[in-house]
Amino acid sequence: xxxxxxxxxxxxxxxxxxxxxxxxxxxxxxxxxxxxxxxxxxxxxxxxxxxxxxxxxxxxxxxxxxxxxxxxxxxxxxxxxxxxxxxxxxxxxxxxxxxxxxxxxxxxxxxxxxxxxxxxxxxxxxx
Length: 127
Prior knowledge:
The chain has helices at 49-54, 96-102; strands spanning 25-36, 39-46, 62-67, 71-76, 87-92, 109-116. By secondary structure, the chain is mainly beta.
């Protein structure tokens, strides 16, 4: 079987966004769960209703998370693709961006670009 990306969700761009996929969409940290001593899961909710409506992803895809004033890093999406109101990202501190995100608290805003990557066709693996 050859995998195709015919139905792969692509990066979300809001109507009227001049920079398209290069513009991070603001998302608020609504929950933080400590997984290990250096790993936390961050639950994010897009600030913009349109972004929440449009954003879809497949297992295995990732987002670029932007820490204001620091930069961005590729982080896998760790939430259920059927739950579309919020996104989870499990992050291990490994550099300046992940360290900056690790210092943020509930209510802080990060930037999100994505989803990127081919994803994993879980539905094709049934049986």
